[in-house]
Amino acid sequence: MTFQNSSRLYAAVSSLLWPAIFCTGLTGAYFAFQSHMPLLWFNVVYLSIVATIALFERLMPYEETWLERDGETFSNVAHTLLSKGSVQIAAAIGTSFPMAVATVAQPFLSHQAHIWPEQWPMALQVVLGLVIAEFGLYVAHRLAHEYLSLWRFHALHHSVERLWVINTGRFHIIDSLFKIALGQIPLYLLGAPLPVFLWIGAVTAFIGLLTHCNIDVRTGPLDWFLSTPRLHRWHHSKLLAEGNTNYGENLVIWDQVLGTYYNPPRPSSTDIGISGKVAKGFLAQLVQPFSSKGRKQIIGKKPKELLAKEEQAARAASARKQASEPIRKTS
Ligand SMILES: [Zn+2]
Ligand SMILES: [Zn+2]
């Protein structure tokens, strides 16, 4: 069953759904973090949001063909559990890890303990943390697209030909750890407290689910500063000129600042995927990037050819930036 696309109800739901699901998730996270078992209750909230998004994907899909099975559901869930498990173990030992990092870094950062503004309201600390973490996430993501040694891991995420809530966590574990390291280490070094990490984790979890959802949401001005499904569909485009854009995980502030923001005034791409070939099956996907045969399969084309295309994409991005036509559009 789908709503009538032209109905007022459809338009209202389409415009309100993204903020409604995001705020519901954050409210659930708030109560989870107040409880005696924060990780357990956070997982309950997370799974409830997954179920809600999956329901709306059936009711109002952005692309109907993406509802069809592609045989990758088990792999997607397995990669999610592996990556999410690592993050949660890191959160569980988070109280001791900052101390370990600080001990190592102390000689280099002698004022480390006084840098983070712990006197600020928690909401402001989380916003600050998101902006700082986003820079590391942006760099990690952009490097993963621009260097073949990292693309061989990140290609797994882009190898799907449909977007839906279940492939949100389809990341190779090496790709995830690289991204987490660049996103979190600056915060550890600045002395951010554990609640800031937990809230950033919550925001990232819900934005990630929403970013990959196959729901016809209208995100309007949110596209200017948050990573939305509309922006992220461009990022998954098969065309390098479209795909090597919108690297932001939660915020697109660094895309805006560094010239990789892309949001032309037309429906975002549904032709997604990569030119290379990623193995079928969870274990085969985990080991594929480590063999030379696997790397060649993933890259799909000779490195020089790919690099030439990437240079072409960079030139196209630069030309777009200089063009006079407005590239921002509310959807
Ligand atoms: Zn990517
Ligand atoms: Zn993605």
UniProtKB/TrEMBL annotation:
Entry keyword Membrane: yes
Transmembrane domains' residue ranges: 9-33, 39-56, 89-108, 120-140, 187-210
Top class in the EC scheme: oxidoreductase
Fatty acid hydroxylase domain ranges (all copies): 126-260
Chief place of localization: membrane
One MF term in the entry's GO annotations: oxidoreductase activity
Keywords: Membrane, Oxidoreductase, Transmembrane, Transmembrane helix
EC number: 1.-.-.-
Residue ranges of the region described as Disordered: 309-331
Pfam families attached to this UniProt entry: FA_hydroxylase
Name by which UniProt lists this protein: Sterol desaturase family protein
